[in-house]
């Protein structure tokens, strides 16, 4: 029922420079079919009925520029643009702090701006899992691994082959109960500097986090091959 709907705020991680893309622009501003990647991501998230509020974390020098662009493009659910930090998790923590200054929500999630092909349907499935199972602390969109994975030591030798059936490739958004994620990020900077995944911080505190199957199209744009693939998918979606 609409009256019992869980409210949701998202931190959109759009700081960093994406050096593997080998672009003159930071990755998040590289155009996809003429529209900057971060703008496409924000358009989609802002259009989702399950999303109430967005906070965008960008490189410190870009805050004013991004604020102006968001106003110009009328992306109304963006409540604040805040500066990031050197590492992703430290940037996310800045976003969480910005959200707490604005209010409180039932759920809080984190999404990478470099995943511009996420859909509202995928996000809604993730929220629905938390809606229906109060025992869960969080959910992660993910896809089953289609590849055999290898565990490799420092010298490059294979030391193990885990069962592929137990392996999933984590995506974003990753969505959690409000206080659960705030508590998970209440750790020393040294811990956050090595964290690449929000769910791992929750898991480290004993949290129950489930996967919700996402789409292979919700990949992270990292290099030129990903960029071409993303533009191909966007072109197909226009048909």
Q: What value does the average pLDDT take?
A: 94
CATH superfamily: Spore Coat Polysaccharide Biosynthesis Protein SpsA, Chain A
Distance between the termini: 34 Å
Radius of gyration over all CA atoms, rounded: 18 Å
Q: Per DSSP, what share of the residues sits in E-state strands of 2 or more residues?
A: 15-25%
Total beta strand runs: 11
Helix content: 25-40%
Largest sheet: 7 strands, mixed
Estimate nothing, just give the exact number of structural domains. Answer: 1
Going across the biggest sheet, name each strand in turn.
5-4-1-6-10-7-11
- Overall structural class, as computed from helix and strand content, comes to alpha/beta
Q: Class in CATH?
A: Alpha Beta
| Broad shape | globular
Query: What's the CATH architecture name?
Result: Alpha-Beta Complex
Uncertain runs: none
Quaternary organisation of the protein chains: single chain
Helix-strand topology string? EEEHEHEHEHEEEEHHHEH
Q: How many H/I helices?
A: 8
| CATH fold topology | Spore Coat Polysaccharide Biosynthesis Protein SpsA, Chain A
